């Protein structure tokens, strides 16, 4: 069953088309992530779902209730949708407890118990209840904003780049905490982000937007392995893109003969491999390997990204390719290597 249904949503601001015929289903209890470059329409779509903006055409329903169509527009405060903006947007004149309890219908002891329960759920200590927003760290402010949104027991939670202002380690910890919290509560969630790693790790369903259009949606692994076009491939991570001749389930390219899933007729195409599909060998003599030399080395701790320049590419000798390998085993610049591939290459649609 789907919690949220978007059907042919369109929105323009003057001559600028912000959303062009967006159709998307969000399953109940799932986590959907909307990704795309700046200006692709991600935040506009999120605001449309929240009820802060209304479409020019199309319809939107939540749990079977129509929120927007050609005859009705349910306002934001009647939708029971939680919203956590990028900066938390806490009320500066209210304490942590009052921010979390804002909008709660209960009073007195029951209200205080509910606030304490929410603080505990987002790992905020009880003694922080009397603090002011300016006395909190960025991560603590985001936890308060999340608790405030959860206080309303929303049917849907919207997260608009809530981790973008946090440092790398805290981002990962907050993302894991939010994932667990939403899963435990059974709340359907939509996250907007421009961080590819964040999107792939958080999502049950990934939706890629570009220039106001929904380019591709599906499971994160499916989109990562089988992107619809080169732009999507590169947006979701590093990619090795090569011209090739496809015939009988194989691609002939600069790396040799590589298996592909495409079984159509013979034709020229472009194929995609992820850098982790390239295997590096410093021992010469492998007849199946393509010879090359390490020309750049980007050490990143447990992982090192090498640039390997091919010495005998079939179509274009001298082509440079990124290769990932364990950081402690990365050969130095100038090392002669051989490259082999594992898995199948993806044939990009023409």
UniProtKB/TrEMBL annotation:
Gene Ontology terms: biological process: quaternary ammonium group transport
One example GO MF annotation: ATP hydrolysis activity
Record keywords: ATP-binding, Cell inner membrane, Cell membrane, Ion transport, Iron, Iron transport, Membrane, Nucleotide-binding, Translocase, Transport
Keyword Cell inner membrane: yes
PROSITE patterns assigned to the protein according to its UniProt record, in alphabetical order: ABC_TRANSPORTER_1, ABC_TRANSPORTER_2
Superkingdom: Bacteria
Matching InterPro entries: AAA+_ATPase (IPR003593), ABC_SmlMolc_Importer (IPR050093), ABC_transporter-like_ATP-bd (IPR003439), ABC_transporter-like_CS (IPR017871), ABC_transpr_FbpC (IPR015853), Mo/tungstate-bd_C_term_dom (IPR008995), P-loop_NTPase (IPR027417), Transp-assoc_OB_typ2 (IPR013611)
GO (cellular component) term, any one: ATP-binding cassette (ABC) transporter complex
Domain ABC transporter: residue ranges: 4-236
Name listed for the protein in its UniProt record: Iron(III) transport system ATP-binding protein
């Amino acid at each position: 069953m789907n919690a949220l249904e978007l059907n042919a949503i369109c929105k323009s601001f003057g001559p600028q088309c912000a959303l062009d015929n967006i159709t998307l289903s969000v399953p109940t209890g799932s986590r959907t992530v909307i990704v795309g470059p700046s200006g692709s329409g991600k935040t506009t779509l999120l605001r449309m779902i929240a009820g802060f903006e209304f479409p020019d055409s199309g319809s939107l329903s939540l749990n079977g209730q129509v929120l927007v169509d050609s005859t009705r527009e349910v306002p934001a405060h009647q939708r029971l949708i939680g919203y956590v903006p990028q900066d938390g947007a806490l009320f500066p004149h209210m304490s942590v407890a009052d921010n979390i309890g804002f909008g709660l219908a209960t009073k007195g002891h029951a209200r205080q118990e509910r606030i304490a329960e929410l603080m505990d759920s987002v790992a905020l200590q009880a003694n922080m209840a009397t603090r002011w927003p300016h006395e909190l760290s960025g991560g603590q402010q985001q936890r308060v904003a999340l608790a405030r949104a959860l206080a309303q027991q929303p049917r849907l939670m919207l997260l608009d780049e809530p981790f973008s202002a946090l440092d790398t380690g805290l981002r990962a910890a907050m993302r894991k905490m939010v994932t667990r919290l939403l899963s435990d509560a059974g709340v359907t969630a939509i996250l907007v982000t421009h961080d590819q790693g964040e999107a792939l790790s958080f999502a049950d369903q990934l939706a890629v937007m570009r220039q106001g259009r929904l380019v591709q949606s599906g499971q994160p692994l499916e989109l990562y392995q089988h992107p619809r076009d080169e732009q999507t491939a590169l947006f979701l991570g590093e990619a090795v893109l090569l011209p090739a001749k496809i015939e009988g389930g194989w691609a002939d390219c600069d790396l040799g003969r590589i298996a592909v899933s495409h079984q159509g007729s013979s034709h020229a195409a472009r194929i995609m491999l992820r850098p982790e599909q390239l295997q590096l060998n410093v021992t010469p003599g492998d007849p199946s390997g393509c010879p090359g030399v390490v020309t750049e080395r980007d050490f990143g701790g447990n992982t090192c990204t090498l640039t390997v320049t091919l010495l005998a590419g079939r179509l274009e000798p001298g082509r440079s390719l990124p290769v990932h390998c364990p950081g402690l085993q990365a050969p130095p610049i100038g090392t002669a290597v051989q490259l082999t591939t594992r898995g199948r290459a993806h044939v990009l649609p023409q």
